[in-house]
Structure to design on (258 residues):
């Protein structure tokens, strides 16, 4: 199972198998190595994408983020669209351009229009990043058989850090009326590590009450997230160390992962 090129088959087995594997790995790390298990030195391992990604959906789960982006494109008066407080707005991205941490990113080229009328084709001048958490779904559902929100967490294999690269100057011009396209799908970077829900259980925190209340099918009786400190640092060739540019926390989400 673990000799495969990714964790897809293991992730699809569900919670019980994941917990057993976690407990076994903990025993190995404490020195109790079962027969047939080989422990590799970290320096001899090349990190890779943890799973083969068939589909990728980007959700507007943070009210702060949705508001700030809305102000950039539509102004303060129209920052949040009317639907945002009623459903977790999202769009499908290009799964094939998700790469593992450390992969070089090429600055994209595309249409840029500063006057709203006449575009030019050039390299992106406003290359941006978005600090995000990725949720990996392991247990699938059949087409036409929706997962009820009370069962959603049983399908979550784990979480990973995600850097969603964004070409803002291209995005402003192309996103009307169908949403992000080339400005958002040229690359997204994820960590090679998947942190399971069991590992994050001690950091679970309740999310604030959603106002107005959601329709019944979206009401999460376990409205919660995790207290995970997150930060972004930038380092240029002239810097001796990383310069922190932003700090955040997963506990600030508005919508739960479920």
């Amino acid at each position: 199972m673990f000799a495969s090129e990714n964790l897809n088959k293991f992730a699809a087995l569900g919670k019980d198998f994941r917990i057993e594997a976690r407990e076994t790995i903990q025993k190995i790390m404490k020195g109790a190595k079962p027969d047939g298990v080989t422990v590799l030195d970290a320096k001899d391992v090349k990190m890779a994408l943890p799973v083969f990604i068939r589909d990728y959906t980007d959700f507007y789960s943070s009210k702060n983020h949705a508001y700030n982006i809305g102000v950039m494109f539509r102004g303060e008066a129209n920052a949040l669209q009317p639907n945002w407080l009623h459903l977790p707005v999202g769009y499908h991205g290009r799964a094939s351009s998700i790469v593992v941490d450390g992969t070089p990113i090429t600055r994209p080229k595309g249409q840029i229009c500063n006057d709203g009328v006449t575009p030019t084709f050039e390299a992106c001048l406003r290359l941006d990043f978005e600090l995000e958490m990725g949720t990996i779904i392991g247990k699938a559902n059949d087409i036409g058989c929706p997962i009820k929100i009370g069962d959603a967490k049983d399908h979550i294999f784990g979480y990973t850090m995600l850097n969603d690269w964004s070409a803002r100057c291209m995005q402003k011009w192309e996103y009307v009326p169908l949403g992000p396209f080339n400005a958002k799908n040229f690359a997204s970077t994820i960590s090679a590590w998947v942190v399971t829900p069991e590992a994050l259980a001690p950091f679970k925190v309740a999310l604030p009450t959603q106002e107005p209340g959601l329709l019944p099918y979206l009401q999460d009786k376990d409205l919660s997230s995790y207290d995970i400190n997150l930060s972004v640092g930038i380092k240029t060739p002239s810097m001796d160390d990383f310069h922190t540019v932003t700090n955040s926390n997963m506990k600030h989400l508005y919508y739960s992962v479920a």
Q: What stands out?
A: The chain has a mean pLDDT of 92. The helical segments are 8-12, 15-29, 63-74, 168-174, 197-200.
